[in-house]
Design brief:
This protein is α+β, with helices and mostly antiparallel strands. Helices cover 27% and strands 25% of the residues. It has helices at 16-27, 60-79, 96-101, 103-111, 122-127, 150-163, 207-211, 289-297, 346-363, 383-388, 393-396; strands at residues 8-12, 32-36, 52-53, 90-94, 116-120, 138-142, 146-147, 167-169, 174-180, 183-189, 192-195, 198-201, 220-230, 241-244, 249-253, 259-263, 309-320, 326-329, 336-340, 342-343. It has a 9-stranded mixed β-sheet. A 6-stranded mixed β-sheet has the order 8-2-1-12-19-18. The longest helix has 20 residues, at 60-79.
């Protein structure tokens, strides 16, 4: 059956995935794009994000996708007023054992255009004086990567969308879909119905509260994630973005001379929302998160010793059953698409996840082989049993950015 180009699309969710999707839909010629959110723009976990990106991922699909994200972050730096992609590199730290087992990955990264260097022990501190390393530590420095400041990126992208004619509706909750013969004809909100040819669900941790309105659910779990930001240092910290797989955390500089740190501390259990009205402001900080970071990451960044702590935020990360993102058409409902469950890498994915979603909607397929992300892949999974079962974070695996 030939794919029909939509004239109007409703994007549900005004986080980075939804905003990126809206951008690409307009660029691909969709005449009317409406973004609706039950809260405010970026008010889910997008503004809580660490903002780190690396393209050194475990599968070919993910590497190709992240490479496109980097292309787009570079482009957004040129076209979004007030936003800059900080291409300081991303250092992925690992033990000798992990590094040795990843030789095939390094071959794949090179084949797909990855540019990286391997640093060992003291070479890490020589390159980045504010990082400490043991002789047994090995770092793979992804040279193209780095970080974004979510609080600058999100308003810049919103302003661009409004200039492009996108209608953004805040504090308007989706309560249903208008379906005819298994096809989306409208999105129903608490303010009324919006006629549309297609709809994209981009609400991440809230996904099943929206998709269940159309009779579909994905198998995923949410986990509490915290990030901490120091007070400014007198001089810019001399380090890149760091994914530390040895000490279980991450650290990066900020654009105002601070350090931002994060962890998924103490192998927390999954977090169950009480309902669609849940807000991240209801999340409680874990009492051991900051002590854990102080004890562990001060060994990586000694300048943290005695540092003042300015603020800290609590959000949710969302992991699908197989810990891969979910991007594509919803099975059994024509004209409905979903982009969600990006582990802790939702910000890193957002430029390309929005592009892939727009390609699904407008073209009926994507420029890269994205079957890995297909929502239809869970056909043999007992979704309801998975959703009902308690699970610990470590059981699903920790994936950084």
């Amino acid at each position: 059956m030939p794919h029909s180009r939509p004239q109007s699309v409703v994007v549900i969710g005004a986080g980075v995935t939804g905003l990126s999707t809206a951008f690409h839909l307009v660029e691909k010629g969709v005449e009317r794009v409406v973004v609706v959110d039950k809260g405010s723009v970026g008010g889910g976990s997008s503004l809580q994000a660490g903002g780190i990106i690396t393209m050194l991922m475990p599968t070919e699909t993910e590497v190709r996708a992240r490479s496109i994200s980097l292309d787009l972050f570079e482009r957004f730096s040129r076209i979004l007023d007030g936003y800059h992609f900080h291409q300081v590199g991303c250092l992925n730290l690992a033990t000798e054992k992990i590094f040795a087992g990843a030789a095939p990955l390094r071959d794949m990264w090179r084949r797909l255009g990855g540019r990286f260097e391997v640093l060992r022990g003291g070479e890490i501190s020589e390159r980045f004086p504010d990082l400490a390393a043991y002789e047994s530590d090995i770092g793979v420095l992804d040279l193209r990567s780095g970080y974004s400041e979510p609080h600058r990126y999100i308003p810049a992208l919103r302003n661009k969308l409004e200039d492009m004619g996108v209608e953004i509706r805040e504090r308007e909750a989706v309560v249903g879909f208008d379906l005819h013969n298994g096809r989306v004809k409208g999105v129903v909100t608490d303010s009324g119905a919006i006629e549309t040819d297609s709809a994209v669900c981009a609400v991440n941790a809230w996904t099943n509260h929206v998709l269940s309105l159309a009779g579909f659910r994905t198998p995923y779990k949410n986990f509490v994630h915290e990030r901490f930001v120091t007070q400014p240092f007198p001089e810019p910290p001399r380090l890149p973005a760091v994914n530390d797989h040895i000490l279980n955390g991450y650290v990066r500089p900020t654009d105002d001379n601070r350090l931002l740190l994060g962890t998924s501390v103490d192998n927390l259990g999954s977090y169950e929302m009480h309902g669609p009205d849940f807000d991240v402001s209801e999340l409680d900080p874990h009492p051991e998160a900051l002590p854990f970071l102080k004890e562990n990451l001060v060994r990586r960044a000694p300048m943290l010793e005695g540092a003042g702590w300015d603020y800290h935020t609590v959000g949710l990360i969302s992991l699908a059953y197989d810990v891969k993102p979910v991007i594509g058409p919803v099975p059994g409902v024509d004209g409905l698409y979903v982009g969600a469950h990006f582990h802790s890498g939702g910000f890193a994915y957002n430029p390309v996840s929005g592009l892939l979603l727009a390609e699904h909607v407008v073209d009926g397929g994507t420029r890269i082989n994205s079957e890995l992300y297909s929502p239809a892949r869970f056909g043999n999974v007992d979704t309801e049993a998975f959703l009902a079962a308690p699970i610990m974070h470590d059981e699903m695996g920790v994936v950084r950015h």
